[in-house]
Structures are given as structure tokens and as C-alpha cells.
Amino acid sequence: MTDDNAPLGLGRGLTNYGDNEFSLYLRRSMASSMGYSREMLSKPVVGICSSGSGYNNCHRLMPELVEATKRGVLAAGGLPIEFPTISLGETFLNPTSLMYRNLMSMDVEEMIRAQPMDAVVVIGGCDKTLPAQLMGAANAEVPVVYVAVGPMLTSPYDGERLGACTDCRRFWAKFRAGEVDEPGIRRIEGSLATTAGTCAVMGTASTMACIGEALGIMLPGTAAIPAVHADRLRAAEASGARAMQLAVAKGKGRLLPRDIITPKSVENALRVLLAIGGSTNAIVHLTAIAGRLGIPVPLDRLNVMSDETPVLVDLKPTGAHYMEDLFAAGGLVGVLKELKHLLHLDAMTITGETLGERLEAHTGWVDHEIVRPFDKPFQEMGGLVALFGSLAPRGAILKRSAADPTLFEKEGRAVVFSSLEDMAARVDDPDLDIMPDDIMVLQNAGPKSPAAMPEAGYLPIPKKLARQGLKDMVRISDARMSGTAFGTIVLHVTPEAADGGPLGLVRTGDRIRLSVKDRRLDLLVDEAELEERRAAATPQAVQPTFKRGYRKIYMDHVLQADGGVDFDFLRSVE
Ligand code: FES
Ligand code: MG
């Protein structure tokens, strides 16, 4: 618990020189060198945790957002102080951005704890940054208001709209199938991502922004505002002002993240995730965020909720539209209102209202073409299901809303790739022994593999089958998939192959049975045979290349998908 509810400004958490008065005197002296007056230095401090980087295109407008947030803090009578953390630009990190999510979360957590601030506004949004920042902020002893950078706009292209990144994959698949030529794909490459902001569809970034709003840690109505829209700056300004109110609030009014992120709000977030046809990655991230506060996200609960919760939002990759359309349709509030009877309306939000009070107060317009009514949904059942069985004892995830239902009840022959390298080397080989009815299996792409759970679960359809016009196959792996991808793809198989999971024991020619109806994923090989294979196998978890530094910490402590791929020592200690 915090030692004092009153704002202490720069006097909070003094540097230890063995003489507190000296510490404060020295801190003020150093702060004065930045040109602040004594009056400014005596105000409550609102930290602004920024995550701009030349390696993060999505956060390109961070300086504007920080400026607007500062304006809100200043107008409300506080001293805004910006500080940086690392940033995770999705496509710029090797081997994966996920590997660094936990590092960023530690940076955020420790810098909020170590530096003097009475409240903090945290700004981010690219795929792994929002989860990292909420994981890091979850245990903060000061109020936290989250601001998402907002989604990109689409661009016109030959009579249609393009937006990262469902269209990235759609056109890449066409290019691989020979339907788009070299100059064509170059032109598309230049049109997919043309503004600041996060990917324009209901990918992981937009899903997590909606989850942030559903959790109540962001101001209402802010998840879908485009990055370049003036409302986005107004949202940042209002967030700065709200953080300042929270900084000086007393008693119960001084809401901490743990007052907002609760079992009830986490369940609300899971509900919203299903209703928006959100990203599979969000399961891992929500598990990690909630896990920092000791709140479980059980996959069997997901299955129950998935059957009760229709997909309401017609957005890519599940539907046809983009985040700018959800914004124009009135934003996430339309979804929350349609789900009202399934939500915990007494969950507290950062505004100080409960979710129910907030929905009650909303009178704005909702476009029911984009946000469908509950009784006329876009799809009857929730987007995500968990599968269990001999191939996935602790679960696997399928995004049924973005998959081909004709493949949901299927037994087929496994065609196995033992690693990403193996897949890259063979998948397009014209002599590859593979038929449209086979089930593709990728091993050793989970959290402990050298690949560190990349978004490689969207295994490419082998070129020879793609050229025959095949668009989908059952594909199974311990990897993740981009929130923007489409297909009958079973992900996050737990335990992973590199951790001794049965996925590592599958051999080409084995039979696998998928039943979405029964929520099963089974390897049809008898136990004695598997025992023999197990005895002969050496899991690939030992990483000779990761002997020191952060990567060693990662390998030593990373949990499986059912632990949110968090580190064991960062989960809540009760
Ligand atoms: Fe940042 Fe897609 S690259 S959200
Ligand atoms: Mg993504």
C-alpha cells in the first residue's frame, strides 16, 4: 500500500542519500535546472509514460499525444513530467515482439514505481505495447489512465480500400498464388500502411484497445478514435485532466489499477473480445495482465462464454470493415450496450462511474450495420474457442469466426514441419507430399523455442496447392497468429513441443482429429507408440545461443500460453 494518499509531487519516493531533506533539496535543485519555477515544482506530479521510437511507426504521433496530455494536466493544476520506456514496433523486433513484451512491462512497472509521480498517463498501442504497459501498470500504487494511440486510416487502391494488415496477407497470398505480379505487390506494399496509428483492422492492437476500454482503464469512447483524428488529441487532453483529478483524489476516489482490473472487469473484457471477433493473441495478453493481479482467465470459461456471446462487429479479419468504420459507427460503446445483459455492470471504471452508469448515460448514435444488434448478430457464436485433447492437454485456441466451418469436424493425415526453418525449406517444394485434405503441423514455434512464439501459426498454404486455388487447410502449431489473419488455424498448443508437449511427438502420416463441436484436438496414435517416441526425443528448449542477458532470463522464466507467456516471477504473489 502507498504510505500516503495525499499528492506528494516531487517529494514522493526520495532517492536514498541517508538524509531525506538533503534528498529533496538536491532533487529540487536538479529539477530547477530544467527551468521549472519553485511554484511548478510544488504541484502534484502526473507522469506521462511515453513509448515513441523511430522503430515504431504506429507511435509516430507520440509527441502530439504527449503534448495534449500535458495540456490536460497543466489546465487541471498539475505538473506533467514525460518519461520514456522502451517501445515495441511489431515488425522491427527479432525474433518476435512478444519476447520483449515482458521486458517492456518491467520497464514500465519499475519506472512508475521508482520515479516521483502522483498519477500516471500511459500511452501506447502497437500490438505488444498496450499489453506490456498494462501488465507493468497493474500493480502501480498510483492511479493510471491509459491512452491508446489509435488505429490507422485505410488508403484507396484500385477501387477498394487497403488497411494493414488483413489486406497485407490477402495480397501476399495472391502474390504467392501468381495472381498479383511483382510491380503490383510493390504498389500494394506502399498503400497498406499510410498513416500513423496501429493496424486498421480488428487485429491485436485494436482488440487490446477495445479490451482496455472494456476493462475501464481508458476513458470511455476512446478505443476506436483514429490516430490522426483531432478527437484523439482531445482524448489525450481529457486523460491528462482525469489523471490529475485522480492524483489529488482522497480515499476511495483515488482509483488504482487494482480497483479497475478485477475479476468482473476481466470477464467483461473477455466478453468483449468474443463479441468483436478479436485477436487470438488477446487471450495470451489478457491472461498475462490479469495474472499480474492474481486473476485467472480459464479457457473452459472462455468456451462457455463463447457459446453465449455472438460476434457483433463486422470488421476485418472476421468481417468486411475497418476500425475507422467502427469509429464512425459510434465506437465500442455500441457493443457494450448490446452486451449489457451479459456484463458485470457494477465494474468500476477510471471515470469513477461504474460501467452500468456509463452505459446508462450514453445517448449517442450507433450504426447497426457495423455493430449488429444482439438478436441479429454478425455471427451466432463468439469468435474464439479453446480445444483440449491428447494433442493439447492444457489447451489450444481456434478463431472460429475467421475460419472455414467446413473444416471444423475433420480427421486427416498430419504433414509435419519440425521448425520454422524446416517449413521455410520445404513448404513450397513441388515434390512435397501434401494433399488438400491433410493437416499441416508446425512444431517448435512455442514460447521456449528459438523462435520465441512468433506469429507463424498462419502456415502458408504450400505453393502447389495455392496454385490449384486452395484457400484454407487445418493448420496446427504452438505458435501464435497475427490478429489480422484468416484461416482454420489451431494455435498456442500447450504444452509446446519444445517443453515436451505431445505436439513434438507427431510424425508425418499420423492421424489427427479436430472437432470444434466437441472442443477436441486429438492425436490418434496409441500411448505405447507415443511413449517410445517420447523416450527417443530431445525437446529443443535448451538454447545454447541464449546464455546471457535478457534472453537467458526469458528462457529460464517464460511460462506457457496458459500462463500468458509471462515470467513466473512477475505473476501475482498472494
Ligand atoms: Fe503496430 Fe500493427 S504494426 S499495430
Ligand atoms: Mg499484429
From TrEMBL:
* Residue ranges of domain Dihydroxy-acid/6-phosphogluconate dehydratase N-terminal in the record: 43-357
SUPFAM superfamilies (alphabetical): IlvD/EDD N-terminal domain-like, LeuD/IlvD-like
Which region is the signal sequence?
Answer: none
Residue ranges constituting the Dihydroxy-acid/6-phosphogluconate dehydratase C-terminal domain according to the UniProt record: 369-564
Which UniProt keywords are given for this protein, alphabetically ordered?
Answer: Iron, Iron-sulfur, Lyase, Metal-binding
- One GO molecular-function entry: metal ion binding
The similarity annotation says: Belongs to the IlvD/Edd family.
NCBIfam families membership: PRK06131.1
Give the protein name, as stated in the record. Answer: Dihydroxy-acid dehydratase
Organism source for this protein? Thalassobaculum fulvum
Lineage here is: Bacteria, Pseudomonadati, Pseudomonadota, Alphaproteobacteria, Rhodospirillales
The protein's gene is named: ilvD
